[in-house]
Amino acid sequence: MDGSDIGIIGMGVMGQSFALNIESRGFTVSVYNRTESRTREFVEKRAKGKAVVPTYSLRDFVYSLKVPRKVLLMVKAGEAVDEFLRMLKELLEKNDIIIDGGNSYFKDTERRSDWMRREGIFYLGTGISGGEYGALHGPCIMPGGDKEAYQQVEEIFLKACAYTKDGPCCSYLGPGSAGHFVKMVHNGIEYALMEIIAESYHLMRDGLLMDIEDIQDTFEEWNKSELNSYLVEITGKILEKRDKVTEKPLVDLILDKAGQKGTGLWTSKVSLDLGVPVPTINGAVNARIISGFKEDRAKLSDKLRGPLIHNGREDKDNFISLLRRCCYICMLLSYAQGMHLLKVASEKFSYNLNLSEVARIWKGGCIIRARVLDTIKNIYVKEQNLPNLIFSDELTGILNEQISALRHILIKAVTWGIPVPAMSACLNYYDSYRAKILPANLIQAQRDYFGAHKYERVDKKGFFHTEWQKIG
Ligand code: 6PG
Fold it and tell me: Who is most buried in 157, 231, 319, 448, counting CB within 10 A?
């Protein structure tokens, strides 16, 4: 045997599942994990009888691979990646390829690509989405980095990824950190969609006072509509689940404090740096943060008054239908914000992203896969250079027709005192974008008043300062 087709470092759930997936497509896979017992357990159980080669030193791992070696890192993003790179660069040879399949911060990927290039090693920062199930059965793969190197791993990626009727959910996205940037924005959109769904659930539960079975049925129905998506689908399934001991709906027993590993926050931070408005993603990140203040919330829930008007007296069918339309609008606006960020980043970092390809590969395998991505893909196929999706006739048509549903739902949420940070961010985004005149004239006047920052005028060109006050 002349060596394994690929090697995977990191035998966590994702690494193991992806190794089995790749092996099932006819490739030989070497595996390595820092803690030996993990590798042993993997080859003795899940990988028993398969073309998986266990290795117990990095040197054996490297030497077990076919040249040029393809090393896929499936380790925790951060310091662990740098540590492995330091060790691997001593063992790998010129033209070998390292693929980072974790959720690495794109600036780290940029630095690591430069570093590896200096060592003569190719580097592919690659986003992989789909969780454990996706890794095993077909994830969405978002590769970026050296194109030459990508061509060498393409066969493996194309065999292991998910497929839709539009082809494989894997496409070379661009140089440097393009793959990890796209994955980061994917996660930002993921945060937004999850929050929109959670807000809908909150409105159904505490606004309409629906029972859990009814809410579950609603999500199941929604999944047959324009909202069809992985996240809506799993929400229905989650609501169905009962705790084995108490037999209560499991979701009612889960503490309402949301965790986060950082990709949503990075999307928000980068959008601020690049000056791209993504308020729904920001709203979703903030919602997770505020959920963490559980004890404060508990204290304040007894102290701060809510509205007196009570809920539950609503035409349920009508409300649910409006809520479905509201979610649709909010989902579209979340994708629009993410895509806008990708467009600006693509120009700024010379990724040369093809946004219709991004939308196409997101249609399957990944967490944000949704029917609406078909519409989005088609819009970009026709108009690759749209500054923002909301300029497309197709989207303006949908928005004009459906936006009243969002307004209606927000009025109810405000009346009932139910927080809807992501949904309200969507409406503010929409109303700000369509406002010919915003009160920024007053902001400019204030800036000039206290800081002599100057302002532009509507009636003549140039920058002006006014002596607003007598200073000394
Ligand atoms: C995916 C997911 C995956 C993971 C993230 C989000 O595309 O498969 O996005 O990468 O769920 O780590 O995690 P947090 O919610 O903890 O930020």
Answer: 157
